[in-house]
UniProtKB/TrEMBL annotation:
It comes from the Eukaryota. The keyword Glycoprotein applies. It is found in: Membrane. GO terms for cellular component: membrane. This is BGGP Beta-1-3-galactosyl-O-glycosyl-glycoprotein. The lineage of its organism: Eukaryota, Viridiplantae, Streptophyta, Embryophyta, Tracheophyta. It comes from Cucumis sativus (Cucumber). GO terms for molecular function: glucuronosyltransferase activity. InterPro entries: GLCAT14A/B/C (IPR044610), Glyco_trans_14 (IPR003406). It is a single-pass type II membrane protein. Keywords: Glycoprotein, Glycosyltransferase, Membrane, Transferase, Transmembrane, Transmembrane helix.
Length: 428
């Protein structure tokens, strides 16, 4: 056991690296994640996800001592890559920059979108910032959408915008594992090193999507009304409107609903964008007249596609605080929410407005982010002295330095993948 640990630490944290804020994972859960990975690579049929429970359960007694030690270094999981969409609207350019800096890692990909409501000057400013940023320039992994979309709040144009970004990310090479849709008012609670490290132990086909088929009041208020989004055909922004006729609940597929925030796997995004089966296209057309389609489109597709049903993890990976009773928008987070955010173990939180001081606290306590700099990860090998950015000198981008955030995230993931929560909550 001890050997595994040293060995593991050795891989992730070369001895010449600073280890000040490295917190080794609890060994028990580390082994479980490791076994999960092993069962994945060891599964014969090439369908990594399905057998992993069984394998973890039956093999833990003999695998640990006899099989783990001889595994050669090269078979440890390489870090995954995330593809982020970060969207904003008028006046959110600066928030968007800050969120990007907090989420930045050279092995990820980023698409930024300031919708058509923001003035061209704001988009131009964002574009210049990305173009002139020495780190983004060096790695070339941040892209600003120049032909901005008109996005109507609660309308299908929001889903169109998300699909547009996913298509750009596929076209840019598609060398990523998860697509994560965020807005300028989201912010991470863990570093990318934490996230990449923890996700490197997960099957790459998992889809993190909060969902339920228990649509309740939404049946009469969302599924039956028919809306039109003028954003689809007008050049100026106007709110969605309702037509008087109502429609019945679909019988060709089952409706699911949930959070508009998700982390979707590369295979599932391929399925939605390429549309070699008709389901994603039909459901998209159906949702064109559905109020709040971002809270239903992907949920309905993933749960009605047999090959993806078993890949869902019922979580949006977010800390979101609703007022009681819930209002249209979530409660705006402030410093009083800090402890609850940390205790949630969630990697992301929303909603933050303006430059609320709680963001400074998150930067200081959780991300170690300095103003106007990206979060320093294991790839940053420059000096901290005299206010220089340690990331101005880049080392190997595969070196991760997970901190306490990885520990929190691991707790969350272990719980989401536990026997009581994982299978029983899929597409129910
Ligand atoms: C994607 O992100 C935006 C934030 O700009 C959000 O409003 C939208 O509902 C999200 N979800 C989907 C499925 O498009
Ligand atoms: C999904 O899981 C269920 C229950 O575990 C199983 O019966 C079904 O065959 C699985 N579906 C696929 C496509 O593997
Ligand atoms: C920081 O500043 C001091 C004093 O000006 C200088 O001696 C030192 O070399 C600087 N360090 C770096 C890394 O630039």
């Amino acid at each position: 056991m001890k050997k595994l640990r040293t060995y593991y630490m050795h891989l992730r944290h070369p001895p010449n690296m600073e280890r000040r804020w490295i917190f080794p994972l609890a060994i028990g859960s580390m082994v479980s994640l490791f076994l999960l990975f092993l069962s994945m690579v060891a599964s014969p049929g090439g369908t990594p996800l399905f057998p992993f429970y069984k394998s973890v359960a039956v093999s833990s007694s003999f695998f640990v001592e006899s099989k783990l030690h001889p595994v050669p270094i090269s078979s440890l999981p390489p870090p995954p890559r995330f593809a982020y969409l970060i969207s904003g609207s008028v006046g959110e350019g600066n928030m968007l920059k800050r969120t990007l800096e907090a989420l930045y890692h050279p092995i990820n990909r980023y698409v930024l979108h300031l919708d058509l409501e923001s003035p061209p000057a704001e988009r131009l400013d964002l574009q210049k910032y990305v173009q002139n940023h020495p780190i983004f320039k060096k790695f070339g992994n941040v892209k600003v959408i120049t032909k901005a979309n008109l996005v109507t709040y609660r309308g299908p144009t929001m889903v169109a915008n998300t699909l547009h970004a996913a298509a750009i990310l596929l076209r840019e090479g598609g060398d990523w594992d998860w697509f994560i849709n965020l807005s300028a008012s989201d912010y991470p609670l863990v570093t990318q090193d934490d996230l990449l490290h923890t996700f490197s132990y997960l099957p790459r086909d998992l889809n993190f999507i909060d969902h339920t088929s228990n649509i309740g009041w939404k049946e009469s208020q969302r599924a039956k009304p028919v809306i039109i989004d003028p954003g689809l055909y007008m050049s100026k922004k106007a709110d969605v409107f309702w037509i008087t006729q109502r429609r019945s609940v679909p019988t060709a597929f089952k409706l699911f609903t949930g959070s508009a925030w998700m982390a979707l796997s590369r295979p599932f995004i391929d399925y939605c964008i390429w549309g070699w089966e008709n389901l994603p296209r039909i459901v998209l057309m159906y949702y064109a007249n559905f109020i709040s389609s971002p809270e239903g489109y992907f949920h309905t597709v993933v749960c009605n596609a047999q090959q993806f049903q078993n890949t869902t993890v019922n979580s949006d990976l977010h800390f979101i605080s609703w007022d009681n009773p819930p209002k249209q928008h979530p409660h705006h987070l402030n410093v009083n929410d800090m402890q609850r955010m940390v205790d949630s173990n969630a990697p992301f939180a929303r909603k933050f407005v303006g430059e609320d001081p709680v963001l400074d606290e998150i930067d200081k306590q959780l991300l170690h982010k300095r103003p106007n700099m990206v979060v320093a990860g294991g790839w940053c090998i420059g000096s901290h002295e005299n206010g220089t950015d340690p990331c101005s000198i880049a080392g190997s981008t595969n070196v991760l330095k997970p901190g306490p955030g990885a520990k929190r995230l691991e707790t969350l993931i272990n719980s989401l993948l536990s026997e009581e929560k994982f299978r029983p909550r899929q597409c129910k």
